User: Which sequence fits this backbone?
């Protein structure tokens, strides 16, 4: 099977795990702090602004919970998003409001955000689809001017940049996912960035039960009664640990090589597919934009995409469409609403395999199977 995603793990990650075992400290500790510091350097911010968590989803929940949303408040987000974003909004008691997207990039432009914003809008969640930075510069400026909190869902975009600035640092908060299908992998894990240092300190507390002290042993060095708890407000336990942080530190060092290979695979797809009849490839990146190349997606004529996906699966190639439109999910209460860009894209878009473990021969196998599937459809009787 040629997989859509596949982590790249090896001897370096095993050695890092062995070091954790040797130290007999698997929980939140020095390796967690070191990974946070290294990731902060990657972002170009101070380590006090980032917190390593047990998932990117936890970052979304913490970000939304930290805003103190009320039942009448609204949060705008693109409909083609992972459901964790909508769940994080809905479970605060606020209302997710889904906006349209550009049908070719599946990212919202500022105009799509503006169409969804009302007087009740407290926050905007901007997704960088497939690693494409999108219109985040204009969206961030608009949110600042309107006093709206901007949360960047940068789960797909750990190495994406605009004019050298890392995506995720344009808004007030951001999160990244390091689950087993992502570019930088820790098994499960995530990172949250918080622009305001005071808010960052609060989120660090909320991520560990609301405690002001993160370690009983560390607190024992500064308090005569270190077992007494200081909890300004209750939180939950969603912090990362040294085992996953050790893997993350190695993956972060390898990240440039991962992205370079992804870029090579994308270039090979482009050279093979740009002239294939009936296939649209992703738009070119604007000047100054760099993508992590998490997804590589094509768009096919209506009615063709689903059949092609089945034919590729029969050939041992797994493809999918990410992300199914959330405004069509009954649980979020938007049934019947029409978003034309989302509707167009959701009937045509197919994500092809993309990960550094693919050889050039694998990519050409995908292309050959795609060509065969399209030809079979063209020859089928009407």
Assistant:
């Amino acid at each position: 099977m040629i997989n859509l995603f596949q982590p790249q793990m090896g001897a370096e990650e095993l050695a890092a795990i062995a070091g954790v075992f040797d130290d007999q400290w698997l929980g939140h500790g020095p390796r967690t702090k070191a990974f946070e510091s290294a990731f902060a350097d990657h972002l170009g911010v101070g380590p006090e602004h980032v917190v390593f968590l047990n998932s990117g989803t936890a970052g979304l929940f913490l970000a939304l919970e930290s805003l103190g949303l009320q039942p009448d408040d609204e949060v705008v987000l693109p409909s083609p998003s992972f459901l964790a974003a909508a769940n994080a909004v809905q479970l605060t008691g606020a209302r997710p409001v889904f906006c349209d997207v550009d049908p070719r990039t599946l990212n919202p432009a500022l105009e799509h955000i503006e169409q969804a914003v009302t007087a009740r809008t407290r926050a905007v969640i901007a997704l960088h689809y497939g690693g494409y930075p999108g219109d985040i510069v204009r969206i961030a400026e608009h949110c600042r001017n309107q006093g709206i909190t901007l949360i960047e869902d940068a789960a797909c975009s750990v190495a994406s940049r605009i004019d050298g600035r890392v995506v995720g640092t344009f808004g007030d908060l951001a999160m990244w996912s390091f689950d087993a299908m992502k570019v930088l992998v820790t098994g499960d894990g995530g990172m949250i960035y918080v622009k305001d240092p005071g808010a960052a300190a609060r989120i660090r507390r909320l991520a560990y039960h609301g405690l002001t002290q993160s370690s009983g042993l560390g607190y024992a060095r500064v308090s005569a009664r270190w077992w007494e708890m200081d909890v300004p407000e209750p939180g939950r336990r969603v912090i990362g640990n040294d085992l996953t942080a050790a893997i993350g530190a190695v993956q972060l060092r390898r990240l440039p090589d991962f992205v370079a290979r992804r870029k090579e695979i994308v270039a090979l797809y482009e050279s093979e597919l740009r002239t294939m009849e009936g296939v649209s490839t992703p738009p070119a990146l604007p000047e100054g934009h760099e993508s992590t190349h998490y997804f590589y997606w094509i768009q096919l004529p209506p009615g063709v995409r689903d059949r092609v996906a089945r034919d590729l699966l029969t050939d041992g190639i797994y493809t999918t469409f990410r992300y199914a439109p959330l405004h069509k999910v009954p649980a979020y209460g938007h049934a019947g609403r029409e978003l034309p860009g989302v509707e167009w894209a959701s009937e045509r878009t197919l994500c092809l395999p993309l990960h550094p473990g693919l050889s050039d021969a694998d990519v050409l196998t995908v292309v050959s199977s795609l060509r065969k599937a399209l030809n079979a459809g063209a020859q089928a009787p009407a």
Q: What stands out?
A: The radius of gyration is 22 Å.
